[in-house]
Each structure stands twice: as C-alpha cells, then as structure tokens.
Design goal:
This protein is mostly helical and 207 residues long. It is 51% helix and 7% strand. It has 2 domains: 54 residues, no CATH class; 107 residues, Lysozyme. It contains 9 helices and 4 strands; from the N terminus they run αααββαααααββα. A two-stranded antiparallel ribbon has the order 1-2. A two-stranded antiparallel sheet has the order 3-4. The longest helix has 22 residues.
C-alpha cells in the first residue's frame, strides 16, 4: 500500500467512513471510496497542499484524469518506439518513469501489468507535481496537471507556463498554456493537440 493510499485509508476512517479494501491511488476501489466520501460531503471540496488533513492531500487522482491518460496513451502490449524514438509499452510507460520496467524490442506485457505500471507512474508523478503546486487546486485541475506531466515529464512540467501561471493564481492562463505542449520534433501533432485540449477542458471543469 502506497503512502498516499494509507493516508486516504486513515483519513476516511478518522471521519467515520469505512472505505473497505483500497487498491492504489488509481485503483477502482480507491477511486470509488473517494468519490463516495466526496458525495457524502466527507472529503474537502478543494485540495490544498498546505492543509493538514490527510484527505486534503493533492495526491488523490480522480477517475476522470486516469481515464483521460488511458484514452490518449492507449494500451500497447508490445514495446514500440514513440514519436521521439523512445521505447514505450503499456499505457505510454517508458524507462524514464522509473517504475521497474525498461521497455525494449520484443517485450510484451498484459493489460493488467500495464495498469500496474500506469498506477505506479501516476502515483509517483502525482507526489512530485503536488510538491510543485503552491495554491489550492480542485481534483480536476490537479488531475489535468498530472496528465500533462505524465506525457511531458515532471521536469518539463516544473518549467512550464502551466505551473507558473497556476501558482500565480492565473487559472485561465494556465488552462490556455496546455496548448503550448502540442509539438513533437518541432511539429504540431493532431493527437497532442487533442490531448492538450482535453486536459485544458478537464482543468476548467471545476470540482
């Protein structure tokens, strides 16, 4: 169980809500428990890095963000080279994700394994992104940022105008800045443009 899931478990229990068994920050049981707790008004509507409550931790990734990542990454059982020539597998997992797999020619994984690597990468990136955000964010805003970071890398996200504008309180500007990350090899790619538009839409969706 990751630290984030443990925090969720403890936080929900402290509020008198029994979430039952949890299965990772992107696992369906964890997401269902968080959504049920939100519907019951037990989880704060906004997620603030400075809050002390375990449930205010911004490492919670909502189902909408996970679905967006899966949709645009797509599942590939066989290792392949992405548009940048990097060996990739599953849901866009590369060696740079640092989740225990180094995709290479001839490698094959199952969809269940791909889900595990996706969860590990999202958990890892979420914790890194959370440390960079200095203002309160909604679940959708945070999820959109994690989706962007999953695609471009946490280091690039840290230098992005999306983060700069968000931390400055310019949410509309941050949403608009997603579209700046629509190129690969100096060329605008329709797939990246669609993903950036979807991330911006999720970011602006509110809670």
């Amino acid at each position: 169980m990751t630290n984030g899931v443990y925090q969720i478990q403890i936080g929900l229990s402290a509020l008198g809500y029994d979430p039952g068994p949890l299965d990772g920050l992107t696992g369906p049981r964890t997401l269902a428990a968080m959504d049920a707790a939100r519907a019951a008004g037990l989880v704060p509507a906004r997620i603030a890095p400075s809050d002390d409550l375990p449930l205010a931790s911004p490492v919670y990734i909502n189902a909408a963000a996970v679905a967006l990542i899966k949709e645009f990454e797509g599942f590939r059982a066989d290792a392949y080279r992405d548009t940048g020539g990097v060996w990739t597998i599953g849901y866009g997992t590369t060696a740079a994700a640092g989740v225990g797999i180094t995709p290479a020619a001839g490698m094959t994984i199952t969809e269940a394994q791909a889900d595990g690597y996706l969860q590990a990468a999202v958990d890892k990136f979420a914790a890194q992104i959370a440390a960079m955000i200095e203002v309160p964010v909604s679940a959708n805003e945070f999820g959109a940022c994690v989706s962007l970071a999953y695609n471009i890398g946490p280091a690039a996200f840290e230098k992005s105008s999306v983060l700069t504008r968000l931390n400055a309180g310019d949410r509309k500007g941050a949403a608009a800045a997603f579209s700046l990350w629509n190129k690969a090899g100096g060329k605008i790619l329709p797939g990246l443009a669609r993903r950036r538009a979807a991330e911006a839409a999720l970011f602006l969706k509110g809670e």
